Please model this.
Amino acid sequence: MSYDELLAKIKDANLLRSTASILSWDQECMMPPGGVEHRSLQMAQIAGLAHQRFTDPRIGELLAECEADDELTSDPASEQAAVLRELRRGYDRSTKLPADLVQEAARTRSIAHHHWQQAREESDFDKFRPWLEKNIDLARRVAEAYGWADGEEPWDALAEGYEPGMRARQIEGVFTPLRDRLQNLIADLTSGPRRPSTRFLEIAVPTGEQRAFVPQIAEQMGFDFERGRIDISVHPFCSGTNPGDVRITTRFRDDAFADALTATMHEAGHGLYEQGLLPEHTGTPLGRAASLGIHESQSRMWENFVGRSLPFWEWCMPRVRDAFGSAFDDVTPQDAYEAVNTVSPDFIRVEADEATYNMHIMVRFELERLMMSGELVAADLPDEWNRRYKEYLGVDVPNDRVGCLQDTHWSGASFGYFPTYTLGNLYAAQFFEKILEDVPGLHEEFARGDLSSLKSWLNENIHKHGGRYQPADLCERVTGKALSADPLLRHLERKLRPLYGV
Amino acid sequence: MSYDELLAKIKDANLLRSTASILSWDQECMMPPGGVEHRSLQMAQIAGLAHQRFTDPRIGELLAECEADDELTSDPASEQAAVLRELRRGYDRSTKLPADLVQEAARTRSIAHHHWQQAREESDFDKFRPWLEKNIDLARRVAEAYGWADGEEPWDALAEGYEPGMRARQIEGVFTPLRDRLQNLIADLTSGPRRPSTRFLEIAVPTGEQRAFVPQIAEQMGFDFERGRIDISVHPFCSGTNPGDVRITTRFRDDAFADALTATMHEAGHGLYEQGLLPEHTGTPLGRAASLGIHESQSRMWENFVGRSLPFWEWCMPRVRDAFGSAFDDVTPQDAYEAVNTVSPDFIRVEADEATYNMHIMVRFELERLMMSGELVAADLPDEWNRRYKEYLGVDVPNDRVGCLQDTHWSGASFGYFPTYTLGNLYAAQFFEKILEDVPGLHEEFARGDLSSLKSWLNENIHKHGGRYQPADLCERVTGKALSADPLLRHLERKLRPLYGV
Model:
């Protein structure tokens, strides 16, 4: 049967991709420096074999046969229809790009990345400008190859690869009120009469002791170490091959215990999603996350709605004291809660707090949308960047190194990716309001260290569906409403205003 | 050019094999238990792709073209001629086995292994006997498919896969005098008037402290941690993908510090060989070890000729005292030297000492040769096994669990492998005599902790050649003599007789 043959071929291709995932994890976490050159050959070989399989014309034939089969497609809500929808999307995207464009893009990206590194080091945008121009041009050609529907725009064609079905216009409809009201909130907080306690952040904890403690928090969240592991990498990430083997990483610094904790909760949130996918769907679209934005909703939920909540700290603080002794004797749960919720507008995205983080994303979304439509040229990027940081966050960007050169994404011609970070925050807030409706005693459970209701709810309502629903549909299905800025704003207002006395 | 195309195809196939090596290392050292099922799919996929490539008929065509090209083959000592010799050997062996035999063997092996485990647990040979019969039959059919020359025998066809060019008759010529003289030596030692000190072995060292110390010894040997790493596994091994990424493992037990140390030196000896191969030959026969026996000569050289030497302990003992404090205050280098050189005939191969170990191997060599020629049937194995243990080692085997059921090899139909262990000891001894000729002050260097002359000699005379020479040719080339039992016997006699006062 065509459907079975199609699934077998897709599983075969995804099996190779899962091997690439191990090679990549190993490179980040285990491989000695001397292995780099050989590893790049291994990765290229596996990527090439996977690409061959995903673009095999036989997949196109089988897809067409299945799509013509009423039994498979008559109910668009069926599992088979969802599988075919996602396979069609993937196949079209894999086959629409001409091979010479793929090669040119890969070559240009790699050189552009090098020039970006240099430009950033020297804070000299002009060194990157010609390569950003090339990357913009390439991304626009890629977008053209993918194509977009009437009323859509080039940026949409790129973002479709990260957030299926989501369009710039919809995002704008949510981001605009978010931006305006966040701008007010941040201005209020920074001029408020009170400052949260930061005592908790000032206590150094030896790295070795953090390493023993932090996995216990992941375990408390329900991360299953029989089906996963935790390691160290420069940039924390979540990876793995199937629900039985999920790998998260974190990082440690003596003077940044809170960072290790939040990074771990963030990645374990991703990890719970991966462990919560159904093993019988491994290698099919139902066995993977719905989108990057939904994935990020899971990490941000645990990082922000658990790890930055007062009830969590009421449970966690005594454990911190037990683990690290007298240094934390005088630190209360309220101290820790305040410390991890300070808000300070700054230039650097990856160091931003829960409120200002979204502003960093919205600046990038607005700018890359303009670059993709041709309304903004590379040469004007620094000015436009700095103007928005002043307007939205009230900060003067001192130079391009901490300004428009800070992120690697555009050096790799990745346009359309940034919004998934804020979409994750928005989904998380909207899901969490629903969870509190369904489990009214949730915060009391947190205060007892019982995080199981939250995990079960996510398993049942999000994880087990994998990629069956497009993100916007999943949001409607789960919360009964379209995505909105309101839940996130309510969450931030309620939490942050009291801490700043406004 | 055919030769270049051939090499490119072989490198491509070996690149896949190196990915399989990472998957396998990861499974042993890193993978969580939940990953087993998916990993077996990944391994099967990569193995299948590699097999396809190694048996590609185009390789046969290219080989034939190259072999007909005088420029490539007129000088049999040239690199190209060596490459072609090894590729021909590999291609013939990969393509001579009918697919149904390969499948039947894999199926039978996996069931036989299961029955062997049960039989061993219950010490009930009869439970394994029918499966051993099947494995013998299969191995004989495999040998027939490979074929053997006039004057050779079925066992040779199997051993060729592990020790190219080595034949049972040659091995017998070396093993027989070794066995006879070892038998005398062991009898003399066990009845000698003196017993070596074992104080060193009786001191417990916390695992955590061993883990900090042991890698320093590997580093002292010259193992390069920029191009390698050391981890923990149940059975120590050496693995990796290329000279830039070599991975060894060891194991730790509080009451077995000496075991961790010798296991580490053994595996680091393998690791130095892999790190000493020339990177420009990666993926070709010149970029891999000459044979399992030669590989084992490297591990045994470091384990026995360094790690069980008095000069080494003169350097090492003060370091042990520095690392572990007062427990070792009264232990002298001589104590350690004696402790790691005790000889005690016993039933279990993997726990055997440097002298009796070879007896265990020779019993197995004799028996599997008879099973392959049809002169010994499975039902008679236990009696023949026990008779030889009594005769060669003077021990009464109490049951089949610690007798003929102790090793896994025959349950996997691996016949022809065992002798490489003793061949390794023989090569090591013969190489070491030559090294002492070339570097007369070697032991004085050891006593200063300077192991660099030994490493350089091995790099230059063994490692850099990779698989260019067949093991017997390498031995002749390096030592000027054919392989002989004399150097190993001289080494053991000189070292052990004084310790036992005989």
Remarks:
- Chain A has a mean pLDDT of 96.
